[in-house]
Each structure stands twice: as C-alpha cells, then as structure tokens.
Amino acid sequence: SLKMASDSPESLMTLCTDYCLRNLEGTLCYLLDNETLRLHPDIFLPSEICDKLVNEYVELVKTDSIFEPHESFFTLFSDPRSTRLARIHLREQIVQDQDLEAIRKQDLVELYLTNCEKLTAKSLQTLVSFSHTLISLSLFGCCNIFYEEENPGGCEDDCLVNPTRQVLVKDFTFEGFSRLRFLNLGRLIEGVNVETLLRPLASLAALDLSGIQLNDVGFLTQWKDSLVSLVLYNMDLSEEHIQVIAQLRKLRHLDISRDHLSSYYKFKLTRRVLNLFVENLVNLTSLDISGHTMLENCTIPSMEEKMGQTSIEPAKSSIAPFRGLKRPLQFLGLFETSLCRLTHIPAYKVSGDKNEEQVLNAIEAYTEHRPEITSRAINLLFDIARIERCSQLLRALQLVITALKCHKDDKNIQVTGSAALFYLTNSEYRMEQSVKLRRQVIQVVLNGMESYQEVTVQRNCCLTLCNFSIPEELEFQYRRVNELLLNILNQSRQDESIQRIAVHLCNALVCQVDNDHKEAVGKMGFVMTMLKLIQKKLADKTCDQVMEFSWSALWNITDETPDNCEMFLNYSGMKLFLECLKEFPEKQELHRNMLGLLGNVAEVKELRPQLMTSQFISVFSNLLESKADGIEVSYNACGVLSHIMFDGPEAWGICEPHREEVVKRMWAAIQSWDINSRRNINYRSFEPILRLLPQGISPVSQHWATWALYNLVSVYPDKYCPLLIKEGGIPLLKDMIKMASARQETKEMA
After folding, report:
1. Separation CA 62–CA 59 (nearest Å)
2. Does residue 315 lie within any of the structural domains?
3. By C-alpha distance, which of 635, 617, 602 is closest to 715?
4. Is-contact 390 380, C-beta < 8 A?
5. Does 306 score more than 80 pLDDT?
6. Tens of pLDDT along 181-238?
7. Can you tell me the distance from the alpha carbon of 407 to that of 292, in angstroms, rounded to the nearest whole number?
8. 134 is in which domain, residue-wise?
9. How far apart are CA 657 and CA 280, in angstroms?
10. Where does the Zer-1-like leucine-rich repeats region domain lie (predicted)?
C-alpha cells in the first residue's frame, strides 16, 4: 500500500490548494493599495478548504525557497462568515502574534503551535478567544509564549540600555477551556507553575510534558479517570513519579523515554517498576522506555531466550516483566537500550537499533519532536543502506525526506539525512522509485544546499544529485539547481572534491538541453564562473578533471547559443585558450574540448572577425596536423577555419599566413582522415554544417561539411539519417552536385 500511496498522483484538492497559494492574487484575492491581500467579496470557503490552505501555506514557506510568504496572509481568515478554520498546524518563525490575533474570531477545534519562538504572551491572550471550542492544543517548543515585555517606568538610563524587559507571565491558566482534552506543553519554559496552569481542566485525555522537570507530579491523579496518554520524555523520574503513574489506570500510552546523551539522570529502571506498570496499567497498548539504563537484569535466561521461533506472545517474552501482559503491545520504544536486541519482544512495533525495521520505527516515532534522537536513528539507517541492502526502501526514503523537510535548520539531521539519501537513491534501488518520489528527493536536496553552506552537507547533496539522470530529472528545478551549483563554484575557498562534482554536474546540466535553458544559465554567470576556474587551474599549472570539465561545459553551453559565445570572447576566453594550449601541449581531451567550443564561436558570423588574427589563424592551421583524440582536434580546427573561409577572401584581413596556404593545409588534413572514424562528438542539429553547402566562395568549406555529414550518416545511420532528412539536407546535397564550383571529390561524396 505504501508503494501505491507514493505513486498515486496528487489529489485535485492538493493541486488546487498549491496553485491558489502560489497565485493568491490571481485566484482568491486582490491587492488593496498595492500591498494588502484581500479576499474577493464573493468567496465563501468551508473549513475543509481553509484548514488545508493554512497548513499547506506553512509547509510551503518552510520547505520551498522560491515561495514568498505574505505579510497579510492570516488576515484572509479573519472573518468566519467567509472563511472557516477548525484544525490548523503552525510551525516555527512563520507565525507571529499578529497572525494568531488575525484569526481570533475563528472557532478552532485543534491548534498545534510547534517551535513558534516568535509568539509571546500576547498570543496567550489570543488563545482565550478559542477557549470555548478548543479540544486539542500544542504549545510544543514555544519558548517565549509565557513572556511579555515590560517597560520599567521612570528609569531613563535603563530604558536606553534595555527598553523592554522580558517578564514571565504568572497569572495565565486554562480557566474556561472547558472542552480541552489534548494538551502538549513540551519544552515549556522553566518558572511556569504547571500544576496551577492545568488545574482548571476538568478531564484531560492526553498530556505531553516533554523536557519539563517536575519534582512533584501528584496533581496528575486529578485526571486518573480520563488520562489515556502521558508523555514525560526527558523528565528525571523518581520513586514518587512512578507511584503516581501507577495510579493512572486508564493510560493506554505511556512514554517515559529519555535522550541518554542529554544530561545525567539518577533514575534507573528496574524489574519492579516494569512489573508495577504491567500490573496496574491494564489498558496499556504503547510504552516507550528508550534511552533508559536497566539497573538489574530483566531478561530471561539466555538458553531459553534463544529457543524457538521469534514470537510476540507475552508468555514467551524475553523481557520477564512483560510476561504479565494480557496481549502484545502495539508499540514498544526500546531505542538505545540493550533490550531491543532480545529475541522475543511482545509488541507489534518496536523502536530500537537492532535492525532496519526497528530503526525505521524509531525515525517514524521521533521525527516530529525529537530531532536529537532522529539524527542518531538516521545515522543507523545510513549504515544499513551503505553496508547491507534496504528491504523497506520506499518507507526509508519517505521517512528521511520527512525528517529533512521538518528540520531544515538542524545541522545533524541535514548531514546524516543527506548522506542516507545518497545511498537510498543510487542505481540499485532505481527501479523501485516513482518520478514523484525522486522529485521529492531533489527538492529536499536543494533545500539542504540552500540552507547549509557546510562542506559535508554540500558534498552529500552534490553526490546525491549525481544519482539522477541529468538533465532530464532535474529539468523541473533547472534554474534553481544551476544557481546553487554556480554559487558553490564561486566561493573563494573551495573543497577540491565538491568543486569536481559541481563542475561535473554543471557540465551535465548544459548538455543536450534547449537553447533557452542555455541562455538563461549563461545570464546567471555560468561562462564567467567556468573561466575563473580555468584561470585558477592555469595559475596552479594543473590540468585535472575540473579543468577538462570546465572547458567541456563551455563547449556545451555555447552550442548554437551566440550570446554565450560572445561572453566567452568578452571575458578573455581566447587568451585562456592559447595559454592552456601552450601550458598543456600533450593533453588531448583538453584540446578536443577547447576546439569544440571554438567551433561554436566560429559558427556565429558577427563574432568571426574577432578570430581573424595572425596568431589565432596560425594556431588553428597548426592544429590541422594534430593527431590528438583521433581526428577530433584536427576536425574541429578545420571546422573553425571552414566557417572563417566561408566569409570570403575580402574578410581575410591578415598578411600572414596566406589564405591559399591555409586552404591547402585544410585539403591535406581532410584527405588524411579515415572516413569510417568513430566519433567523440554529438550533434543536436546539422544547421551550422548545412549552411556551408550552397555556396561557391569556399569549396574547401563545402568539402569539410560534406565529409562531416558523410562520416556521421555512414557510421551512425540510425541517429543521423533522420536528422539529415528532417533538416532539409537532401535537396541541398542534390543542388550542390549540379554546382560548377564544387570539387569532383566533394560531388562524389555527396
């Protein structure tokens, strides 16, 4: 079912929501005074649509760097007569006091505020507006919501230094929140009296007090008849806590797990504590004791432990206290405990570090609120993907994608997650992945590259992109990916390995793409960036992959793109060409790439006069005799000269070498090539070659063009015969055969 879910197209609802949010002005809204968004007066939207608009908006602001947040977005939902909100999930810096204030007239049933650090005590007052309808509330990680600003009166000096002082609000309680059943106060700021805060709540069903230190939790017993879920993650427990928990007989979910790295805990789990839970909490279906140290041995003898088939039946449990369970637990959290490695664990789902299933359960359970644990679980997944083979690939990928999206600014998760993605997207897993899933991977990889200039993340992200078919699979994010790579290559201090991968990617991105793409990338500074890299390598006297890829990328990006050819000339490209030729006379690959590029420049009539100098013409003439890379260097040099000759004798504005002498050398070169040569070149169009056929000004150019076509269609007929026909080559060849000025051997070849 997971495969089906990940492959099915987005629902129409999702697509419409996304479209409206990206085009608010053109759909639901108009701009008042050119700045404030206003809803069109004839729009009435139910909560099913409004909730989705708000929740998707938060998601887009968080995960899509191109999406621009709107100052006045939340004011669109200020009037319940036209827009209804019921269940909304807001996160992080996206939400401010005035946003909640804007929707205060709505009858919210569910409000999740996660890590909304910009909210202050003003928002506590706004919460009161929802008190009569609110059933679920989360203030997880809203560390400033109990602070208000206080202006100390009369002290002039102090006002200048610290005009507003943060003061803890002590008088707020949940008085009047008569329907509130589910409450998450995770990571609540110290100093707030939790007992007083919660006392007015009549019947709590679920309470999360993660990361809060309370020495006395006796007050919890006031909900012993209603509390079904209690989370005390990272609370340092004591015997008193355990006694109170044991009285909460209705509990179905209990989480007393901890992060064993975060601080010193006095409390150790014992067999007696687990027995107490099993005996008293008879409705328990989910228990999390991750990160705890066991004070004594809770396991059955190892001989018995290893016997029989793996079982989840409580009677066979390897953990002795759990033999008292009536039925297996739905979930048992044992991450970073020794118990997860036992054979018989009485639970359908176990989080732990023993195998892939346990690790994935851990990532799934802890991603939202516990990035510190999640990053360690993803690290384990990374090892599994790298060393063994992942058996639940789609689940693994989706969990890592979710974690990376959810914690865009968490360095540990970005490092481990991007590394895991590299192994999860490589070729052996390719068949199992849908286009939609692979696009999601690309999105989070690019997010990571944008948010983190950190070397490891950048390298992991670049390597992961290499697992995709380029440019096809990156086409949908073409501009963005190029901008990010150029950004990496323009940094003054560079990691060698990242530089190499980034240049390789840049080269692949401009190979075999449409001209408008190449022009757009050229305008981003692509040509300049590559020339700078070449300049650096020249200064170091090194001709490595970066040098070769940079020239290759310039060859690709100038193909039939005059603007980029002109940039190459304007940024002293020819000077670098000559210097590289002189510095690296033996480097055949390099010569081929450089001459391929100059072939592109020579195709542009307006730029050819710049190639018309004694120095350049001599260099091209001498390269006619080059045997580098088979015929490629000689062939490209001859191509450059063929275009120059095509401009006629009057364009030959130099005394040395003589035009006739160069023509003679060109004939000699063409006659020396093997007509069946296999080629190291890729033509997308024959247009630049075909234009040399119908002319009598330069028979040698005509001959070069005919040789080129003959070689390509005879060695690669399937690829190039259709191209020749499609681009109208046949009538041009027939006409040329009738021309008096054409040489006999050219006509025979035609």
Report:
1. 5
2. no
3. 635
4. no
5. no
6. 999 999 998 889 999 999 999 999 999 999 999 999 999 999 999 999 999 999 999 9
7. 25
8. 32-149+169-194
9. 101
10. 196-337
**Positive or negative torsion for Cα 130, 132, 136, 140:** positive
Residues 6+ apart with CB under 8 A from 431: none
> Parallel, antiparallel, or unpaired: how do β-strands 136-138 and 182-184 relate?
parallel
3-state secondary structure of 568: helix
In a domain, 74, yes or no: yes
Residues with Cβ within 8 Å of 649's Cβ and at least 6 positions away in sequence, in order, are 659
Q: How far apart are CA 625 and CA 114, in angstroms?
A: 70
Average pLDDT of the segment spanning 697-724: 95
Residue located via tokens 């707030």: 192
Whole-number Å distance between alpha carbons of 148 and 657: 84
CA dist., res. 372 & res. 114, Å (int)? 16
Burial category of 590 from C-beta neighbours within 10 Å (exposed 0-12, middle 13-18, buried 19 and up): buried
255: phi then psi, degrees, rounded to nearest 5 = -125, 110
End-to-end distance of the chain based on CA atoms, in angstroms?
A: 60
Q: With 0-12 CB in 10 A as exposed, 13-18 as middle and 19+ as buried, what is 431?
A: exposed
Q: Is residue 189 a contact partner of residue 143, using CB atoms and an 8 Å limit?
A: yes
Mean pLDDT of the chain: 91
Quote the CA–CA distance of 396 and 388 in Å, as a whole number. Answer: 14
User: What does the block give as tokens for 641?
Assistant: 């000269």
What is the Cα Rg of the chain in Å? 35
Q: For residue 254, what is the enclosing H or E element? A: strand 253-255
Taking residue 140's Cβ as centre, other Cβ atoms within 10 Å add up to 20
Which amino acid is present at 684?
R
Contacts of 716 (CB under 8 A, 6+ apart): 679
Span 140-152, pLDDT tens digits:
999 999 998 876 4
| Helical (H) or strand (E) element with 88 | strand 87-91
- With cut-offs at 50, 70 and 90, classify the pLDDT of residue 1: very low
Q: What are the DSSP calls for 300-350, one per residue? A: PPHHHHH-SS----GGG-SBGGGGG-SS-EEEEE-TTSGGGGSS---EEEE
Which ranges of 511-544 would DSSP assign to H, the alpha helix? 515-523, 526-539
Tokens of 462: 């670049």
Q: At what angle do helices 588-602 and 614-623 cross, to 10 degrees?
A: 130
Q: Which two tokens stand for residue 157?
A: 């000096």
The contacts of residue 145 (CB under 8 Å, 6+ apart) are: 113, 116, 119, 120, 121, 123, 124, 139
Q: Report CA 166 to chain centroid distance, whole Å.
A: 37
What is the identity of the amino acid at 236?
D
- Grouping H, G, I as helix, E, B as strand and the rest as coil, residue 192 is coil
Q: Write out pLDDT tens, residues 450-478.
A: 887 788 999 999 999 999 999 899 999 99
**Angstrom distance (rounded) from CA 429 to CA 637:** 44
Give the residue from 88, 27, 10 showing the smallest Cα distance to 53: 88
Within a domain: 658 = yes
The Cα-based distances of 350 to 251, 347, 428 in angstroms read: 19, 6, 28
Cis check for the bond before 717: say yes or no (omega within 30 of 0).
Answer: no
Number of neighbours of residue 494 by Cβ within 10 angstroms:
17
pLDDT of amino acid 434: 84
- Secondary structure (3-state) at 612: coil
Residue 538, Cβ density class (10 Å: 0-12 exposed, 13-18 middle, ≥19 buried): middle
Domain count, the chain: 2
Peptide bond into 657 cis (omega under 30): yes
Asked whether residue 723 is assigned to any structural domain, the reply reads: yes
Cα(725)–Cα(721) distance, rounded to whole angstroms? Answer: 6
State whether residue 305 is helix, strand or coil.
helix
